[in-house]
Amino acid sequence: MSYNFERLTVLIVDDCTNMQQLLRALLLAFGFADVHTAKCGESALKVLTSLKPDFIICDYNMAPMDGVEFIKTLRSDDQSPNRFVPIIMLTGHTEMTNILAARQAGATEFLAKPVSPQALYKRIEMVIERPRDFVETKSFFGPDRRRSSLADWAKDERRDVSFID
Predict the structure, then answer these.
(1) 41: exposed, middle or buried (C-beta count within 10 Å: 0-12, 13-18, 19+)?
(2) Residue 58 is part of a domain; what is its CATH number?
(3) Is residue 48 part of a domain?
(4) Which domain holds residue 39?
(5) pTM here?
(6) Residue 123 · residue 58 · CB < 8 Å
(7) Which of 75, 60, 35 is closest to 112 using CA atoms?
(8) How many separate domains does the chain show?
(9) Using an 8 Å Cβ cutoff, are 37 and 14 in contact?
């Protein structure tokens, strides 16, 4: 399916200027007209006080505030400008511990570098077509980490999730 993205706003959070330029070029080629950038999580939080993006693409490894800390702050801070914004975590460090850390922080989607146009477009489609409900517990606020709703499972196929806080 092809989308008209011209009215959507995107924030790219990445400390690598080349990656910012690559992502910007891909997004412009997809039809986005309003693409903003920030160099790290701290500067992104400042940008978000005046910008309301439809989604964020965020690098994992940045300094002084990395992507995981940025997402945790955005999702958990009472003063957060937009706790519900979808976030696509982008990284070249695709070890399972990093994927789980991003997921636990509240990332909506995960995308491995080197990024292809098709993979980026697919993640954007997922953010649009399959928005996730948000969950709040004592230790987590963010998009539901399960890909399927419990209603999608037959009763005898459901896992016991009562242990989740």
Answers:
(1) buried
(2) 3.40.50.2300
(3) yes
(4) 9-157
(5) 0.85
(6) no
(7) 60
(8) 1
(9) yes
Determine which helix (DSSP H) or strand (DSSP E) holds 71, and give its type and residue range: helix 67-76
Which residues, including other chains, have CB under 8 Å from residue 112's CB and lie 6 or more apart? Answer: 90, 91, 92, 94, 119
Q: Which residues pair with 89 in a beta bridge?
A: 58, 110
pLDDT in tens, the chain (165 residues): 678 999 999 999 999 999 999 999 999 999 999 999 999 999 999 999 999 999 999 999 999 999 999 999 999 888 888 899 999 999 999 999 999 999 999 999 999 999 999 999 999 999 998 888 888 888 888 888 775 555 554 555 455 555 554
Cα 96 to Cα 82: distance, rounded to the nearest angstrom = 27
What six digits make up the tokens of 112? Answer: 């491995």
Q: Are residues 46 and 37 in contact, defined by beta-carbon separation less than 8 angstroms?
A: no
**Any domain includes 162:** no
Helix/strand/coil for 88: strand
141 neighbors 135 (Cβ within 8 angstroms): yes
160 — phi, psi (to 5°)?
Answer: -75, 115
Q: Can you tell me which residue has the tokens 């539901």?
A: 144
